[in-house]
């Protein structure tokens, strides 16, 4: 049975990275005040994106008391997601010391995520510098199957976010070959930009071309979509992580695809806007209208 619009609206979520310049408690409070009942936390701290500094916590460094405080801070939310560290994290490095440190951080992040009541944890497959995927693919498969076991024990799922490998069918094939029930995909709606040809980037072509890529991505993954990152892609400069409704994404068509697949995961806004609260609030309204339109 297709997902109902009310169910999907209830799973609209905000990543705290959408509220740069706030500390973590401030970001959680601001998102709650905007009407969100689902939040996505960063399991890292001290980084920034184009709109400002990002607040989070390195989950693997939390004491038991800090874990309790973090669990209490997200208690008002009905659903919680986590984004694992990915900047300067290299679980497939040829350097064994670096590799094992990264892997242990990811394992611990999954365990702590479950302990604070989260449902899913996003990761990135970080390529091995100077190598093509096929050269270290067995390591990716083995490690993500291991993460699947850790995730299952913790009561969470783990997802691989759109981005690497870039090719749509190759990405879907990797997720499918991992073949673990706790491991799925995070469809990030803006991370297919690198697949656009020069001709497709032309103003008159880009919207149609990009939305077709996105639809292909969703179809290729079948029932392996466990999480979604939502934002917009502006035609000028092909910039992503923009406020919803300001770019080329056909949200009604996208939500129609999710609803037809009885999608049950969260849909988390991941924005990089200077006027953060206003942009996040407007994005939520755009998404709600699109979900209702998709159901008509």
Helix content: 40-55%
Show unreliable segments.
Answer: none
CATH class: Alpha Beta
Instruction: Characterize the biggest β-sheet.
Output: 8 strands, parallel, barrel
How are strands sequenced across the largest beta sheet?
Answer: 1-2-5-6-7-8-9-12
Q: Provide the CATH topology.
A: TIM Barrel
Gyration radius, in Å? 18 Å
Give your account of this protein's structure.
By secondary structure, the protein is of the alpha/beta class. It has a single domain, classed as TIM Barrel. Helices cover 42% and strands 17% of the residues. It contains 9 helices and 12 strands. The chain has helices spanning 5-9, 24-33, 64-74, 96-115, 133-154, 168-178, 206-221, 251-260, 276-294; strands at 12-15, 38-42, 48-49, 52-53, 79-83, 120-123, 157-161, 183-188, 225-230, 232-234, 239-242, 266-269. The strands form 3 sheets. It has an 8-stranded parallel beta barrel with strand order 1-2-5-6-7-8-9-12, surrounded by 6 helices. Strand 1, helix 2 (24-33) and strand 2 form a beta-alpha-beta unit. Helix 6 runs parallel beside helix 7 and helix 7 runs parallel beside helix 8 (251-260). The longest helix has 22 residues, at 133-154. The chain is globular. The model has no long low-confidence stretch (mean pLDDT 97).
